[in-house]
Amino acid sequence: MNLHIRIEAGRNALSALGRQPISTAMTVLALAIVIALPVGLFTVLTNMENLLGNWRNQAQISLFLHKDASPQAIQHLQKALAQTKGVVEVRYVSADAALAEFQKHSGMVAAIQTLGENPLPASFVVQLDPLRYPPSALQQLIGHWAQDPAVATAQSDLHWVARLQAILALGQRAALILAVLLALGAVLVMGNTIRLHIAQRRDEIDVASLVGATRSFIRRPFLYQGLLQGAVAGLVAWGIVVAAFYWLQVPVDRLAALYGTQFNLVALTPEQGATLVIASALLGWLGSLLAVGRHLDHTFA
Amino acid sequence: MIRLINVTKHYPGRHHVLREVNLHLRKGEMALLTGPSGAGKSTLLKMLLRLEGVSNGTLMVNGVDLSTLKRRHIPAYRRRIGVVFQDHKLLMDRDLFSNVALTLQVAGLPDRQVQSRVRAALDKVGLGDRLREYPATLSGGEQQRVGIARAIVHTPEILLADEPTGNLDPRLSNEILDLFRDFHHHGTTVLIATHDQGQIDRLGLPVLRLEGGRLHAPEDHQ
After folding, report:
1. GO biological process annotations for this chain's record (chain B) (predicted)?
2. What pTM, to 2 d.p., does this model score?
3. pLDDT number for residue A134
4. Does the distance separating the beta carbons of B71 and A212 come in below 8 Å?
């Protein structure tokens, strides 16, 4: 295929878009919003996954001890814990240390002083190798240690992480469904826009067909139009997501500070952004292909 | 060059537009296709352009059987034909150069060739100095000349014209038909559909008369 024909078709597509700047801008913006919605949702979910990542990779168990557990029983338990395969660290938190920590973080000093005595039990915080202990094995281990006479309660601190993870998986599935539906919407928006362009250039198409233009010759400028508008819409969608995340960072910082931590939102990596632009361009191209194909089937019948 | 053997054309649920038409137009010949409105002149030209199919019979153009021509081969076939319409079919948002260049661009000619051949074609019809003007600034006769330039710019083997002087006064009609004669003298096969009796008498060309779907042609053109 001659390069100059493609260049001419590209020029043709650009001039067609430039002739109607407002209509072109509106189409691009509509597409960009349609694309930004699922991409934004995916990105939010990815950030939450990242947030959970650190906790998810830790397998930690807390064993709260009976108040009247003897020092020997506690020592025996500590020894047994340390000898268990896969245990990375065993940390003993005395009742006093627990109280001090609680007072430091909760600020409820006066309320605790009114109780007269320390209500918190001593405990062991057991750090496990997450590779050796998947969630099901962890549950078994908790059951085993809960039967120790020194242990009042045994619990995994990761239950809520698992629940949140399940919610995130649900969210991701919902985002995928939304993405498929909105991608279809994007194809229809582009198809409809190209149909209008075809209607405006019907005379040109008819004359070109009469003087021997092939389907691909007629189709090409419209495909380039769809490709260009799709690519620009992808760029704008990328911009929308980045701007939205930038705007969200301040309240996220505030929320993270309340938990004594910090968390940086990550919008889209350059690779993800480039993928978004390419996918969006392909959606535009597909919408054009469907619209022009239908028209040409009629013209060349 | 153009050969019709018992060609019939009818539309579903309607009367026959053409009935067992036989025609033989040889290479380099020029003829006038005439008849009253609705006689089937435009339909015959559309069939020659492969805009319409044949219901029955055989339609051969330059050895190509149009009744069996595959859809994907139609564009290449049309590039061997020039066609002029009564309503010019010019693109009003493009200048004269772009209107004429379209014929060469669809054929994939490089820019340099397009430039020189479009200039030559517009020169031939007397509009070589108005390349960048738009059709709306031209008179009806001048617009038809642009239509002719577009039809001949790729030096087609066959030139078809459907009532090319229909909207023009006699003086402009003479000018336009003289242009066709000029192309005929250069070896192009020309078939012009017209019902202008004055022009038919003046030109003294073979007349193919369509009436009631049947063609009445001189013996050597059947």
Report:
1. cell division
2. 0.71
3. 66
4. no
Instruction: Report CB contact under 8 Å: A212, B103.
Output: yes
A183, A281: one domain: yes
Which residues in chain A touch residue B114, judged by CB atoms under 8 angstroms apart? none
Provide the strand spans (E) within A130-267: 151-156
Report the alpha-carbon distance of residue B66 to residue B62 in Å, rounded.
Answer: 10
Least Cα separation, residue A223 to chain B (angstroms): 17
Total domains present in chain A: 2
Q: Which residues of chain B have pLDDT under 50?
A: none
- DSSP assigned state of A264: -
* Residues A240, A234: Cα–Cα separation, whole Å: 10
The reply to whether A40 and A74 lie within a common domain is no
* Cβ <8 Å between B76 and A207: no
ipTM above 0.90, yes or no: no
Q: Same domain for A153 and A180? A: no
Does A1 have pLDDT greater than 60?
Answer: no
A213 → closest Cβ in B49, B106, B111: B106
Provide the CATH number for the domain around residue B151: 3.40.50.300
- Residue B7 is assigned to a structural domain of this protein: no
pLDDT per residue as tens digits for the range A20-69: 899 899 999 999 999 999 999 889 888 887 777 656 556 678 899 998 88
Domain limits at A67?
60-157
Does a structural domain hold residue B14? Answer: no
Nearest CA in chain B to A218: B106
Residue position matching structure tokens 């969608």? A237
Q: Does A206 contact B75 at a Cβ distance shorter than 8 Å?
A: no
| B21: in domain | no
Contact check, Cβ <8 Å, A203/B83 = no
Q: In Å, how far is A242's CA from the nearest CA of chain B?
A: 41
pLDDT value of residue A261: 72
* A87-136 pLDDT tens trace: 888 999 998 898 888 877 666 767 777 777 888 899 999 888 766 766 67
The answer on A258 and A119 residing in a single domain is no
Query: Is residue A216 located within the same domain as residue A256?
Result: yes
Q: Residue A217's closest chain B neighbor by CA?
A: B106
